[in-house]
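Researcher: We're teaching a course module on how sequence relates to structure. For the next exercise, students receive a sequence and then see the predicted structure as tokens, so they can try to spot secondary structure elements on their own. Here is the exercise chain.
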Amino acid sequence: MRLLTTAMLGVLLAAHTTLALAEDCQHAATQSAIDQCALQAYQQEDALLNQNYKALMAHLNHDQQTALNKVQRAWVQYRDLNCHFIASQYQGGSIYPAVLSGCLTDMTKVRNLDFKAMKNAE
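Model: And here is the predicted structure for the students to work with:
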């Protein structure tokens, strides 16, 4: 029972922390806070991308899975290189991390929409 209580407390604390971070991000005032919020937004979108990728893969035959795997690896490389290029004009500046994370988030959101459309087309 004690283990269950401790686990539930951990879940509640994590949920509270997530809500607090989301609330803090709406009012982020420092560059450090903006950078952290931008990174969190990207991490959430990337986690969703992984879920959508797995869901799409489950609907494909072997040849399609192989092709999607190759395409996705190339897309990730393109996304990362493209966003580093876009953010490079701010290299050394305090806004660089937020610009990089924002670009990664935006491109990943579009890819998530692509995956959802592909899955719905099946």
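Model: If you want an answer key for the exercise: The chain has four helices and no strands. The chain has one domain: 29-121.
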